[in-house]
Amino acid sequence: MIRTADGLARITELAPAERWLAVLVSTRPDGEPGVSVVNAGILPHPRTGEPTVAFVSRGGTAKLTNLRSRPRATLVFRAGWEWIAVSGPVELAGPDDPAEGLDAEALRLLLRDIYAAAGGVHPDLDEYDRAMAADRRTAVLLTPTRFTSNPPGTDHEEPA
């Protein structure tokens, strides 16, 4: 079993190599996996301060529909042949998903914080804020409860 601190440290080692891109796995209404690619980062939960792995989603997407119905997800980060997956319950915070203790200003700042945690740098944060509001962007906060990985340094041969 991978401890939370060790799992988060491993994400921090691997994620920058792939620009903090992660494969998101949610569950569709038919029970099949819903899969997409997101930029995700690690930051303190805005209410509890506990470590969370978070990303931002455009409003009206299938991933948000899936996460509203079944609020659990897995994110898989990789660099080369090494990878780590983090799974857990998710909370949504956005214009269509009000979150306890998070007003519009706190949401605006949270979206910025997630963007920065996922390696984003924007030359005009006011423009960023406008785009987030226009797209009805939602913060997705995953509380890590399980990590799975291949052992660091695992050698793989390329297919011939």
From TrEMBL:
It comes from the Bacteria. GO terms for cellular component: cytosol. The keyword Oxidoreductase applies. The keyword Oxidoreductase applies. Keywords: Oxidoreductase. Coiled coil: none annotated. GO terms for molecular function: coenzyme F420 binding; oxidoreductase activity, acting on the CH-CH group of donors. This is Pyridoxamine 5'-phosphate oxidase N-terminal domain-containing protein. The lineage of its organism: Bacteria, Bacillati, Actinomycetota, Actinomycetes, Mycobacteriales.
